[in-house]
Every structure is written in structure tokens, then in C-alpha cells.
């Protein structure tokens, strides 16, 4: 049990910390509203484009795609995997970064166990710092994820996408996967993995929708699903669509990650403020008990001295 002066100092320190965490919670809440609006507005476009590209890949399965860009079918090999991992630039976000890094590390171990070469493109300082310590030779590049006061910009997503596209077209990597947190609400952010290159042949959640697939095939009148008529030809069209798809998926992931970061920070700071209040109550109780004990001891000493006289 410390002295009264020490207890007063600790109570004052915890109160100062609570002021900071409360202020950070309010700042995160104000930023969350804007980030959530942007993420939810971009999500339908990104999901629709991902679904369209998946259907396109299914429709062209078995066709000669050698003339198409490598973004469509990759290099044809499965030796080198590029993992694009999105974390936050700043901390104090609870388990937001650690949950995503845990998913990415599990995937890395799985690929390494299969004898694959893993390369990492880190988006966000926290992920970049982590892999700079754990796997420095695997990191090929890093980008900041913080969009600044104006939020995430499409130019930022385009820079990241251009780096990915350049590596794929040069044949430096065979497969590209994106690891990012999907925003659910302020308390929940779901780490997910999405395939970027080659184009996935199965849409997320489509595997269980057999009735819808059968109905679509019946309407198309063909057992192999819908076919596409290209105007202009598929090579020219996909040369423009494929890079755009990568940019859109990166942009959407950046928005989802930004919203998730603010939600995680708001929740973490709220929990910290609550814990600080509980700690202040506990310290105040200890302070009052110590003060009462000191008063009682002084009274006993005065009474004892008076009786001795």
C-alpha cells in the first residue's frame, strides 16, 4: 500500500490517461462515420465487378487464353505467391491488426510447407514493421494505408495496383492474394483472403447456391452457363478491364480497412476509458482507506499521550 502522496499521483495519472482515451474515442467515432459511408458505398460496385470477372473466367474456361494479359490466368505456374497484406498505419486498435496477421501467417506457413516461394507487399506500417522483423527477405515493397484527412483516395489504390500489375506482367509472381479486414460494424472486423490473380473461378459463397446456378443454366439454354459476346474483341476489352478490376478491389479493401480501423480504435479506446474509470474507483477506495487508517492512528497516538500525562 503506497503513501497518500503516491496514491494521489497515480489517481491523477490515470485520470489524465482517461481524458486522452476519451478524446481518441470521439475522434475515431467522427472519422468512422465518413469511413463507413465510403466503404458501404464502394462495396456493391467492387462485389459486382468481382462477380462479373468470376463469371467471365468460368465462361472462358477451356478456351485459348494465351493472348490475354497475365492478370487473367496468371503465368500458368504455381510456384511464387504474392500476398498483399493490409494493416493500419497506427496502433491502439485492439486486435484489428493481429487477427489479420494471424490469418496471413497461417497462409504463409501453408504455402511454405508446399514448397512455394512467398513474397509480401505490405500496405500499412504495422504490417510492414511486422514482416520486416519476421520475414525481411520476403518483403518486396510497402505502402502507407492512411489516406490522410481526406480519407482513402483512388490514386493511392492505383499506385498499389500498378505495382502488383507490373510484377505479374513481368512474370515475377504466379499468384496474387489480397488479405484485408472486411468492415462489419464498429465492434467486428472480419479478416478475409481474396484471390486477385489468376481470376478466381468460383465466387465467394457461390458453391452452395446450386439451385440458382441450375436456373441460370436453364435460362441460358446451355449446360456450360452463360456465354459472352465481346465488342470489341476479348483481348482488347480484357486488357482494359483486368487492371481496372485490380484497382477497384484494392480501393474497396482500403476503404473497408480504414472503416474497420476507426471502428476498432473507437471500441478499444472505449474499453480503455471504462477500465481507467474502474481503476480510478479502486485507487480512490484504497486512498480513502489509507487516509482513514492514518487518521485513526494519529487519534490513538494523541489519546495515548494524553492518558500518559
TrEMBL record:
GO biological process: proton motive force-driven plasma membrane ATP synthesis
Main location group: membrane
Region feature (Disordered): 200-225
Membrane association type: Peripheral membrane protein
One Gene Ontology term of the molecular function aspect: ATP binding
Keyword annotations: ATP synthesis, Cell membrane, CF(1), Hydrogen ion transport, Ion transport, Membrane, Transport
Compartment(s) where it occurs, according to its Swiss-Prot or TrEMBL record: Cell membrane; Membrane; Thylakoid
GO CC terms in record: plasma membrane; proton-transporting ATP synthase complex; thylakoid
One Pfam family per UniProt: ATP-synt
CDD domains (UniProt xref): F1-ATPase_gamma
Family per similarity comment: Belongs to the ATPase gamma chain family.
Function of the protein: Produces ATP from ADP in the presence of a proton gradient across the membrane. The gamma chain is believed to be important in regulating ATPase activity and the flow of protons through the CF(0) complex.
NCBIfam families cross-referenced by the UniProt entry: ATPsyn_F1gamma, PRK05621.1-4
Summary of subunit composition and partner proteins: F-type ATPases have 2 components, CF(1) - the catalytic core - and CF(0) - the membrane proton channel. CF(1) has five subunits: alpha(3), beta(3), gamma(1), delta(1), epsilon(1). CF(0) has three main subunits: a, b and c.
Descriptive protein name: ATP synthase gamma chain
Native source species: Oecophyllibacter saccharovorans
